[in-house]
Amino acid sequence: MDDTAPIDRAARIIDSEAAHIRARVAESGRRLQSPAAALTAATEILNLRSRYFGVTGEHFGIQDFDGIRVIDALDERLLKGLHEILKKFVAAHRRSPDLRLLAMLTEKISPGFTDMPQYPVAYMVLYLLRTAFDRFQNLADAGAHDLAELEHAFVHHLLGLVDKFVQTRERPVWRHFSDVAREYSVVSRLKCSCGDEKFDVKRQSLCQRKGAPPYDRLDLSCKACGAEKTILFDLPHFQDMYRI
């Protein structure tokens, strides 16, 4: 059996679905005439997650290492696409939001934002965004504020949420620490063949290979049945550490 087959299949899914995300982002970016239009575009982009979740589930278990790796990669691309749309709207409509509304939205819609890890994984941010949209709709339905002004402030609020994640994935040094933080997030979501979802990390090793970036090797043991598993994580930004 070819051990590279799952890796190749995962890469094909990522490439195909990432291309679809880029195309939808480009299409949505052409209709940002108002805050309401920007929020509609943002919702459409977020809804793409159900598509690639389904595609990935046809080939991998969602709680298997390869499945998690594919979903995480596409979640990151989804958030970067969303960031592009929100940033484009703000750049085209330079009017500042009502600061009182912005502060109110931060308090009422995303109180958990301050509890996010320093280097959040994409799925955490997506959950926060979904919660924010639900709570925003409740505020909008209450009718206590001018809707257009509320929507304008909400676009800026969303951009602030997404921008933190994008910075951790693009800034030198930060992106390496973000890669390492993601490793333990993946471990926490793995499911053993015995049905248990708890693995212990028995050993973590930084490994070198000629002509390629180093990688982390994590040796795991299922807490329930003792089954052992080894997973590898590329560290494409390890060279950032030499900048410190």
Could you describe the 3D structure shown?
The chain has 244 residues and is mainly α. The chain folds into two domains: 166 residues, no CATH class; 52 residues, Roll (SH3 type barrels), CATH 2.30.30. It contains eight helices and three strands; from the N terminus they run ααααααααβββ. It has a three-stranded antiparallel sheet with strand order 1-2-3, covered by helices on one side. The longest helix has 28 residues.
* Strand runs, count: 3
Strand line-up in the sheet with most strands = 1-2-3
State the helicity in percent bands: 55-70%
Largest sheet: 3 strands, antiparallel
Tell me the count of domains.
Answer: 2
Poorly predicted sequence stretches spanning 5 or more consecutive residues? none
Share of β-strand residues: 5-15%
The number of distinct helices, counting runs of at least 4 residues, comes to 8
Query: Looking at the structure, what is the overall shape?
Result: elongated
CA-CA gap between termini: 43 Å
Write the layout of secondary structure elements.
Blueprint: H1 5-28, H2 35-46, H3 48-57, H4 65-92, H5 99-109, H6 122-142, H7 147-170, H8 174-189, E1 199-209, E2 212-222, E3 228-234
Antiparallel strand pairs: 1-2, 2-3
Helix pairs in contact: 1-2, 1-3, 1-4, 2-4, 2-7, 3-4, 4-6, 4-7, 5-7, 6-7, 7-8
Structure keywords:
SH3 type barrels; mainly alpha; 12% strand
Outline:
The protein has 244 residues and is mainly alpha-helical. The chain has eight helices and three strands.
